[in-house]
Design a protein that fits this description.
The protein is of the alpha+beta class. Helix content is about 40%, strand content about 30%. The radius of gyration is 25 Å and the shape is globular.
Length: about 210
């Protein structure tokens, strides 16, 4: 007796074949999902920043305000495990030169950066910018490990302070449970990533 769906194989043979193929197909499906996740993670090789134009912002740790600014920029920083000084340079330069403010003299919008306005910058390290959902659970394995990220982030803060002025750049407490308060002015929120080319340039200079 033969199956109606496949006249080439007897029912018993079709069932046997299906039973043998099912584990293989399951493994292939899992491998495909893993490969897709790897490709997705492989493509992300950048420092991330979320920039918010604020009227005021502050960071509180254990009930105590550790940093606060008036008008300026609140910048959330996500550091990827492969980030280098080139990424930090790019983010610093772009953030400080983003023309997010109105020129009060000419009335022209989107005309001046935070330095031209003499405003302040508040930096906050946020590894959750590199979170991926596995099902419903977030995964942060592509973020730079804390032992490496802490000195790297400190150097980024110093880079901002040198490029602008030390007293105009504040930051939170790395690794602490922080409460970040802000009054978004606009609202204006921008997302920024360092370019892939910075990784290629660094790799080329290392290999040469």
């Amino acid at each position: 007796m033969y199956c109606l769906a496949s006249s080439a194989f007897p029912c018993s043979h079709t069932t046997l074949l299906r039973n043998k193929l099912s584990p293989l197909l399951l493994r292939c499906n899992r491998s495909h999902q893993s490969l897709r996740l790897c490709r997705q993670n492989f493509q992300i090789r950048a420092m991330r920043a979320v920039i918010q134009r604020v009227s005021s912002s502050s960071v509180t740790v254990d009930g105590r305000i550790v940093s606060e600014i008036g008008p300026g920029l609140l910048v959330l920083i996500g550091i990827h495990e492969s980030d280098t000084d080139a990424d930090a340079d790019y983010i610093c330069r772009k953030v400080l030169n983003m023309r997010l403010f109105t020129n009060e003299t000419t009335g022209r919008g989107w005309d001046q950066n935070v330095m031209q306005k003499g405003y302040r910058v508040l930096l906050v390290s946020q590894f959750t910018l590199y979170g991926f959902l596995k099902g419903n659970k977030p995964d942060f394995h592509v973020a730079m490990p804390p032992e490496k990220a802490k000195p790297f982030y400190a150097s980024l803060v110093e880079r901002f302070q040198k490029a602008y002025k030390p007293d105009a750049v504040k930051d939170g407490v790395f690794g602490a449970m922080m409460k970040v308060n802000l009054e978004n002015d606009g609202p204006v929120t921008m997302q920024l990533e360092s370019p892939q080319s910075s990784k290629n340039e660094t790799k080329a200079s290392t290999e040469s």
